[in-house]
Amino acid sequence: MDLRIENLHIHSETEIIHPDQLKSEYPLSQKAIDTVLNGQQTIKNILNGSDPRRFVVVGPCSIHDVKAAREYAERLKQLADQVQDTLFLVMRVYFEKPRTNVGWQGLVNDPQLDGSYKIEEGLRLARQLLLEIAEIGLPTAGEALDLVTPQYVQDLFSWTAIGARTTESQTHRKMASGFSSTVGFKNGTNGDLDVAINAMRAAAHENNFVSINSSGNVAVVRTKGNPYTHIVLRGGSDGPNYDAKHIAQCERHLEHLDLAKNIMVDCSHANSLKDPERQLLVMDDVSQQVLDGNTSIKGLMIESNINGGNQAIPKNLDDLDYGVSVTDACIDWNSTEAAIINMHQHFKKAGLGLEASTALAKEA
Among 228, 167, 222, 218, which residue's Cα sits nearest to residue 192? Predict the structure, then answer.
C-alpha cells in the first residue's frame, strides 16, 4: 500500500520556461539597457544628493491591460521630458498584487483575469511590456512580491518596492540585498517605522539564501549587500504619516541609527485614507515641505491611470472600462499631469532643478 507523506495538498506541478530562456526570447536592446542603467544611476544620484531633483514613481496600481499600459507609458514619457529639469519620472509597472485574503493577484499570476492562472503567459507579457517601455526611454518601477519572478524581469526595473506586508520578511530582505536597483521599503501596515528601517539595515549586508538561477536550477545566492535602500512612508492604521511632524520623526529615527535621511512619500494607501483624490492633497503638502527647505524627501509615489477610480473584474471581460484600475482606485491622467506640472513649476521657480544647480556650479 502506497502511503503518501508529502504534497498531500498539491493538485499538480507544471514546469515553465526558465528565466534565461525567456530573456533569450525577449533580449534587451541597447536602448533598453541605457534606459534601465540611466534610471538606476539617476535615482542613486538623487539619493546621494548629487542630483538636485526628486523622483516620482507614478502609474497604475497594477497592470491588467498591456494596451492601456503602453498608452499610459507614451503619455508619461512626454510628461517626463517636459518636467525633467526638476522631476525624474519613473513609471509604476506592478505585475503582482499582495492580498489580505483573496482576489486577483496580478498579470503574471492570472493574465487572462479569469482564474486560469497561465503564469508563463503572464511572464511573457510582463517582460515584453517592460522592454517596450524601456525602448521609448522611460524607466520603470515594480514591486518584488514573489521570490522567483524577479529572475525573469528584475533586470528591467530601475527602482523596486518591497511592500508593507513583505518588508518584515527575512527572505525579501535577503533578495533585496542582491538587487541592482534602488529598493524602497514601505513602513508596516500599522505605521511602524522600525520594520522598514530594520529591512534597510539587513539588506545593506551580505546575505546568503536559496533560490533559482537563470537556468532554473536551485542555487545558493550570495549577495554583496545593497547600499541603495530607503524608507517609503505610506501611512498606517493610525492614519497618514506624510506631514512635517511625521517626516521630522522619521528623520530623527534614521539619523539616530546613522542611516541616510532619504524618504519617499507614498501619496496613496493610508496616506490618502484610500481616497484616490486625496493623493493630490498629499502631493501639495509634500511639495510645500520641499519648498520650505526639506532635503530628506527624495521621492513621491502616485497611483494613477488613464481614467480615474477602479472597477470589479466582470465575468465578460468585454465589459471592462478602458484604462480603469481593477485593484486600488487611481486618479485620472488629467489630474496626474496637472499636479506634476504644477509641482515642476513651483520647484523650477524656487530654483530646485538641474538648471539652477548647473548655474551655481559655474559660479563656484
Answer: 167
- Given a contact cutoff of 8 angstroms between Cβ atoms, the answer to whether 298 and 254 are in contact is no
Bridge partners (DSSP) listed for residue 184: 161, 230
For the chain, domains (ranges, CATH) are 19-363 (3.20.20.70)
Q: What does the pLDDT look like over 93-108, one tens digit per residue?
A: 999 987 666 789 999 9
Q: Collapse the DSSP code of 164 into the 3-class scheme (helix H, G, I; strand E, B; otherwise coil) and give the result.
A: coil
Place of cell 501596515: 189
Q: Over the stretch 329-355, which tens digit does the pLDDT of each residue have?
A: 999 999 999 999 999 999 999 999 998
Which alpha helices (H) appear in the chain, and where do they start and end? Answer: 19-25, 30-48, 66-83, 119-135, 150-153, 170-176, 194-203, 244-256, 279-291, 333-349, 354-363
The three cell numbers of residue 48 are: 546621494
- Tally DSSP H helices, then E strands, for the chain: 11, 10
Cα distance between residue 18 and residue 322, in whole Å: 33
DSSP state of 272: G
What distance in Å separates the CA atoms of residue 330 and residue 126, rounded to the nearest whole number? 21
Please give the Cα distance from 345 to 351 (Å, whole number).
10
